[in-house]
Amino acid sequence: MNYAKKMYHYHVWANQVLLEKMKELPSNVLYDEVRSSYPTIAQTFSHIYVVDVMWLAVLKGNDMQEALEESIALVEKTNRYSIDEFIQSFEQLASQYDEWMNRQKDLEQKIQVNNPWSGARETAYAEILLHVANHGTYHRGNITTMLRQQGYASTMTDFSLYWYQS
Question: FRET label pair with 68: which of 50, 54, 104, 111, CA 20 to 30 Å apart?
């Protein structure tokens, strides 16, 4: 399996593991405000989801600015999602990513991405998939810290655990 594809599958697995952990906790934990990069765990999961949606649109050939505007429209709605809604949305999105990846002959194919903040650059599909996985890892770390601030333990989502469970 292509390494970038494997990392994307790790990202999907880690989101599922953390969301399943959240189901064990009181529902208010998702919405209680803490001091972090986002005020609530729900808003952090929302951010991961919305950015994943945006990058899929870019992978499918949409201009990044257009993809960003369309995905940002989801923020208000997804900020209020329940755990079950996050689980369902992430599962559906993972299916869309898998469909897209399975249609690709070469994940090293280069495309032009015009980032509104950084400018235009050529990048491979694989690099975008690696970015999606890395971005998710960063924010799942934020969620772990947010859980600890609220007095709860998180769960292990390390890539090395994924090796044994996938």
Answer: 104
